[in-house]
Structures are given as C-alpha cells and as structure tokens.
Specification:
It holds the Pfam family TatD_DNase. The protein is of the alpha/beta class. The protein is built from nine helices and eight strands.
Length: about 260
C-alpha cells in the first residue's frame, strides 16, 4: 500500500460527503479513520465561496492532517455581496489557511460574466500577494485570460485540475508555479492530459482528487475521495518512469513546499 499521499485539492465540505443513501462513508468516517489508514498523510481542502471556505476552515481545525484554502470560485463571481473580499481576508488570517483558492476563470457554461470573473480573480491574486500566500487557480476554457493575469501578478501557487496543452503547462512552470493532475490522467481519452503531465518537471508536479469529482478509472463516474489517488499516482509514475512510491513521496514534498507545510518525510 502506498504511503505519504498528499491530496493537494479536495472538497470534503461538499454535500456529497454527507450521509449517503448508497451507504458510502461520510466525511467524518473518511477523515477520521479511512483515509489515514489508506496512506493519505495530508489533505488540502479548498473553498469555492465564503460558506465553503468557512466549512473548509472548520474541517482543518478538526482534523490535524487537513489544511485549507479560502477563496471565491469564478462561478460565484457574479453573486457577491459588498465586503466579500474583506471576509475572505479575515478567514485567511487563521493558521490553518495555507492558500487563496479556488480562484480563477471559467468560461464553459453560459451565462457568465467575463468582466465579473476578471475583477474577482484579479482582486484575489492581489490579496494573495499582499498576504504572502500561494494561490490555487481554476481555469476552464479561459487559457488566454488566465495566463495574462498570471503573467501580470506572478503569484506563487498551483494551476489545479490541469486541462491545458503541454505548451501551456511549460509556461505555467516557467512562471514558477506547480501543476496539479486529477484522475483524468487515467481516462482512455486522456492524451492531452498525459502530454501535459509529461511536460511538467517532477519537482513541479502535484496529485489531487478534486473530490467528490474526477474519480479515476476504474471508478470513473463514482463519488471520488482521496483513497483513490493511487490510481492517479500509478498513471503519473508510468509517465515519469519512476516507482509509484517515489512519485507519491515526490508529490508529497512538492505539496508541502508550495503550501508552506513541514516536509516531514
């Protein structure tokens, strides 16, 4: 069994981790016992709006191996009240908060306001820089605008659930950022993701679930959790030509570095 797994991006605050009608374990069972027994040593739980950021902080205060990020996802950019940024900043002062995220741009689903998303993303990039925190960036169908802002603000951090080209991955790395890959790298049609992962140097590579989404094969379409990361690790280890435990150790150290956590391997 693999050890030292760091799930660098999870959403255990999701309602899908409540008591399940299908008999799946809830978040307390997973975080309290199942995941540590499955070799999961650390988890980064990531907010997507103010309520989920509050819940992420609550989970990090409850479970010592969980850290958290706070921020506003682009899909929430047009529904914000006055003072939203100050509320996120107040949460970011807590010691368990290690990043500003999940922030970014998403032009996939209509309707959306490009202007609102750009304003909210920029404000949080500025906040992260001012607080000295890394960012966790979401980018979907918005490569050009995302890269323009990353070039402008030069944040530390991660482009998570990476879906871009190998060329874009190289530019992300050249900006000093890390790249996170999900169970998508196990899918049969994952040629683009595999090429991007091949282009990322090992020292800039992260593994993540984005759970409850993105479950790897052979569990595709099911609710995902961090215990499924060995499938993602195996796929990336094959790409990099290293052993699976070595890849787990490597990505653990990378995540600790970007999030400013002790490298205790």
């Amino acid at each position: 069994m693999l050890q030292n797994i760091f799930d660098s991006h999870a959403h255990y605050d999701s309602r899908q981790f409540g008591q399940s009608d299908q008999g799946l374990p809830d978040r307390d069972a997973l975080l309290g016992a199942i995941l540590p027994r499955a070799g999961v040593r650390r988890v980064m739980n990531v907010g997507s709006d103010y309520p989920s950021s509050v819940q992420s902080l609550r989970l990090a205060k409850t479970y010592p191996f969980v850290s958290c990020a706070v921020g506003v996802h682009p899909e929430s950019a047009s529904d914000l009240e006055n003072g939203w940024l100050e509320k996120i900043e107040a949460l970011a002062g807590e010691g368990e908060v290690r990043a500003i995220g999940e922030i970014g741009l998403d032009y996939h689903y209509e309707p959306y306001s490009r202007e609102d998303q750009l304003v909210v993303f920029s404000a949080q990039l500025e906040l992260a820089g001012r607080l000295g925190l890394p960012v966790i960036v979401h980018s979907r169908d918005a490569v050009q605008d995302t890269m323009n802002l990353l070039r402008e603000y030069r944040p530390r951090g991660i482009v998570h659930c990476f879906s871009g080209s190998a060329e874009t991955a190289k530019e992300v790395v050249a900006l000093g950022m890390y790249v996170g890959f999900t169970g998508v790298v196990t899918f049969k049609n994952a040629k683009k993701a595999l090429k991007a992962a091949e282009a990322v140097p090992p020292e800039r590579l992260l593994v993540e679930t984005d759970c409850p989404y993105m479950a790897p094969e052979p569990h595709r379409g099911q609710r995902c959790d961090s215990s499924l990361l060995p499938f993602t690790i195996a796929a990336l280890a094959k790409i990099k030509g290293v052993g699976e435990q070595k890849l787990a150790d490597l990505t653990y150290r990378n995540a600790c570095k970007v999030y400013g956590l002790p490298d205790d391997l």
